[in-house]
Each structure stands twice: as structure tokens, then as C-alpha cells.
Write a structure and sequence with these properties.
- InterPro entries: Ig-like_dom (IPR007110), Ig-like_dom_sf (IPR036179), Ig-like_fold (IPR013783), Ig_sub (IPR003599), Ig_sub2 (IPR003598), Tcell_CD4_Cterm (IPR021963).
- It comes from Seriola lalandi dorsalis.
- This is T-cell surface glycoprotein CD4-like.
- It is a single chain.
- The protein is 20% helix and 30% strand.
- The N terminus is likely disordered.
- It is elongated.
- The protein contains three helices and 15 strands.
- Strand 6 and strand 7 form a beta hairpin.
- Among the domains are: 89 residues, Sandwich (Immunoglobulin-like); 77 residues, Immunoglobulins (Immunoglobulin-like, Sandwich), CATH 2.60.40.
- The strands form three sheets. Strands 1, 3, 4, 5, 8, 9, 10 and 13 form an eight-stranded mixed β-sheet that branches. It has a four-stranded antiparallel β-sheet with strand order 12-11-14-15, with no helix packed on it.
- By secondary structure, it is α+β, with helices and mostly antiparallel strands.
């Protein structure tokens, strides 16, 4: 009986209920007063105790429900990560004879399509609000339009390019309006086989002789590197040929120098000398000159 009286006393001293909106998969922090408590602290989800921080032992005693995705920070605040729909509802912090209450609203917006949101296909938009005893009235606002669809589920029988953009899901609770956005991207319809067989002259690179071929930057880099390699190979071949030619000339000069140092050798023929010609008759001697007669003087 004393526990019930103490619990009733804490509820009577509880602060005003605060509403916090979050989205599935996000994180949220619920604060329990500005200062750490002097005594024990408890966090409740609905009527289930999920944390009990004992000041004597200095560590939290976990309960059930969302405790696997939550932790107590700074000895008092409750942090929930990876929020799920079942985490919505009432949260109560009890410490130092006071309590702080929160209403956690978990909103889930989704869009499904059978053909990957292509123009002409079908799509379904859904907006769910968890955490209130009674489901609130939900409205969808189309992108870039003032038209409002008063329904939580919207069926798009034929997706149009105008459906692309930000859809806004809105609802009200205690005269306060809350909203959640959903972005939709509409893709172009799939081309038919007849259309795909046609050649687009703008996208064709070699359709005509006058058309120019556009190369990407990496192709230009490859062409430049290839030209540089060819130039280097040509230079290497030229230098190598000149080096080989100079070496041949050097070897030829060395060979000619060795030959000039050797003594000259002449070839001697070992054959008999030619016989003299036989005398053919006896040559007649020249007649001797007549002696000069002295001149007679008269």
C-alpha cells in the first residue's frame, strides 16, 4: 500500500506532458530535469520499468521493452537509438519525488511501387502515426501544389512527372500540427523494343563521316601517353644506331692501325730466267773511215 501511495504522490507532482515526434530508425533523447537526481531514478515505458538507476550501486538495473536500444546518459537522460514503432507511447522519469512525462510519437512514411517509380506506373504512399490512443487524421500535400489529400494512404494509379518532389504528411495533436516529408523521384518509362532499335543521331558517334567522335579525358590521357612512349622509343633507336656506328668506325680504325705496323712482304717467284736469243749470223762491221789526205798546197 505504501508503494501505491508513493507512486500516486509522484504522479501528482509530475510535470506537464511533453510531446516529442520522431521517425522510424532515428534517435531521440528524453531529458529528466536539469540536474542529476540525489537518489534513485527510474524510467518507465507505459507501466513497464525499463531502467532503475540506483545511487548506492552506481549502475543501472535494466528492465524489458526498449532497454536493448536505449541507455541512460549523464545519470538521468534516456537516449533511444534506432527507434521502432513499438517504442511509441508514454515515457515517465521518476526521481527525487517528482516525475516528468513524455508522449513519444513515432511517424512512419513510406512509398512503394511495382515498377520502380517509372512514369505511367502505380505507386502507394503511406503515413502512419504511432503513440496516440486514437489514430489522428492524416493529410497528404502534393509537391508544389496546395491540393491536400485527406487520407493516410494515397494510391497513384498512373505516376506522372508532376508527382516527383517532396510530399508532406501532416497531422494534429492537442492543437499542434506536426509534419513529415517524403521525397519521390519519378523515372522515365522503359523504352519499347521498337524505340530501342532506332538510332539516335545525337548519340551516335560514327553514323556519318562528318560526325565528330568525342573522347573522354582518360582516352586523351591514354593517347598522350602512347605518343610519348613512341617518341621515346624512336629516340632510343636513333641513339643506339649512332652508338653502334661509332663503335664500328672505332674498330675499323684500330684494325687499320694494326695492319700499318706489320712489315711488308713481297712475293718472290722461283722460275728459271729466260734464255738469250741466238745470234743470227755475224753482223757486218761498219767500214772504217778513210784516212784524211793532207791538202796540197799550190
Amino acid at each position: 500500500i505504501s508503494v501505491i501511495v508513493f507512486y500516486s504522490f509522484q504522479i501528482a507532482l509530475s510535470a506537464a506532458d511533453e510531446v516529442i515526434k520522431t521517425r522510424v530508425g532515428q534517435s531521440v533523447t528524453l531529458k529528466c530535469g536539469p540536474n542529476p537526481p540525489k537518489g534513485d531514478l527510474s524510467w518507465l515505458h507505459g507501466s513497464v520499468r525499463i531502467f532503475n538507476v540506483n545511487s548506492k550501486f552506481g549502475f543501472p538495473l535494466k528492465g524489458t521493452a526498449v532497454h536493448s536500444r536505449s541507455k541512460v546518459k549523464s545519470g538521468k537522460d534516456l537516449e533511444i537509438t534506432g527507434v521502432k514503432r513499438e517504442d511509441a507511447g508514454k515515457f515517465t522519469c521518476m526521481a527525487d519525488g517528482k516525475s516528468v512525462e513524455y508522449t513519444l510519437l513515432v511517424v512512419s512514411v513510406s512509398a512503394t511501387s511495382t515498377d520502380d517509380f517509372r512514369a505511367g506506373g502505380t505507386a502507394i504512399l503511406q503515413c502512419d502515426v504511432n503513440g496516440l490512443g486514437k489514430s489522428p487524421e492524416v493529410e497528404w500535400k502534393r509537391p508544389n501544389e496546395s491540393k491536400v489529400l485527406k487520407q493516410a494512404k494515397v494510391n497513384l494509379s498512373s505516376v506522372a512527372p508532376s508527382d516527383a518532389g517532396t510530399w508532406v504528411c501532416t497531422f494534429s495533436h492537442k492543437k499542434v500540427t506536426y509534419s513529415e516529408d517524403l521525397v519521390i523521384e519519378v523515372k522515365a518509362p522503359k523504352s519499347s523494343p521498337t524505340q530501342s532499335s532506332k538510332v539516335n543521331p545525337k548519340s551516335c558517334l560514327k553514323c556519318s563521316g562528318s560526325g565528330s567522335v568525342k573522347l573522354s579525358w582518360w582516352m586523351w590521357v591514354a593517347v598522350g601517353v602512347g605518343c610519348l612512349v613512341v617518341i621515346l622509343l624512336v629516340v632510343f633507336v636513333i641513339v643506339l644506331c649512332k652508338k653502334i656506328r661509332r663503335r664500328k668506325k672505332k674498330l675499323q680504325r684500330m684494325k687499320n692501325g694494326r695492319q700499318s705496323l706489320r712489315p711488308k712482304q713481297f712475293c718472290q717467284c722461283n722460275r728459271p730466267t729466260a734464255a738469250g736469243k741466238p745470234q743470227q749470223g755475224r753482223k757486218k762491221g761498219k767500214p772504217s773511215a778513210l784516212p784524211l789526205q793532207p791538202l796540197l798546197k799550190e
